[in-house]
Amino acid sequence: MIGSLLSDLRFKPFVLSLLAMGRILSIDYGRKRTGIAVTDPLKIIANGLTTVPSASLITFLKEYTSKESVELFVVGMPKQMNNEPSESWRYIEPFVKNLKKTFPQIPVEMVDERFTSVLAHQTMRDGGLKKKDRQNKELVDEISATIILQGYLESQNLKFKL
């Protein structure tokens, strides 16, 4: 389909601008490991990418952004039920500051991550994963990052519709 649009010169600038768009990368930061999810270049679908040891996360992101265009980082912000930052924010805040310093050209948005682990476990159960597979904490972190990203995408779609 894209090939046929490119062959029609009227659509070429539009199609090329879509292809040049960067991905949105979601980060579910944890003290030991971090789940990562990304969108497709058109920012339609959120997909789990991987789980990375948190100590090597910045190195991973440098390598990833050298190969792929990323136009936004979405970082899960842990909140309590009263909407205040949770205790784990003290571990995430230094990471976010380092992320902004390391990648000043890429904006960072914080997104409420309440219940993402619960939703990740539910998704795994609904997907028919065996109990042993559902205990894979790396997979839970990757799915959580995907849920954070999907929620962000849905909130952006709502803004455009209003």
Low-confidence stretches: none
Q: Supply the helix-strand structural class.
A: alpha/beta
Number of domains: 1
From the spread of the alpha carbons, the general shape counts as globular
Q: What's the architecture in CATH terms?
A: 2-Layer Sandwich
Euclidean distance between termini CA atoms: 30 Å
Kindly identify the CATH topology.
Nucleotidyltransferase, domain 5
Major sheet size, sense and barrel closure: 5 strands, mixed
Tell me the strand order in the biggest sheet: 3-2-1-4-5
Determine and state the CATH class. Alpha Beta
**Number of helical elements:** 7
Helical proportion, percent range: 40-55%
Q: Specify Rg, calculated over alpha carbons.
A: 17 Å
Mean pLDDT: 81
Counted beta strands: 5
Characterize the structure shown.
The chain is built from 7 helices and 5 strands; from the N terminus they run ααβββαβαβααα. Helices cover 49% and strands 21% of the residues. It is an alpha/beta fold and 162 residues long. The chain has a 5-stranded mixed β-sheet with strand order 3-2-1-4-5, with helices on both faces. It has helices at residues 2-7, 12-19, 57-67, 89-102, 116-126, 131-134, 137-161, and strands spanning 23-28, 33-39, 46-53, 70-77, 108-112. 26% of the residues are buried.
Fold topology:
Layout: H1 2-7, H2 12-19, E1 23-28, E2 33-39, E3 46-53, H3 57-67, E4 70-77, H4 89-102, E5 108-112, H5 116-126, H6 131-134, H7 137-161
Helix pairs in contact: 5-7
Gist of the model:
This protein has seven helices and five strands, in the order ααβββαβαβααα. With 162 residues, the protein is of the alpha/beta class.
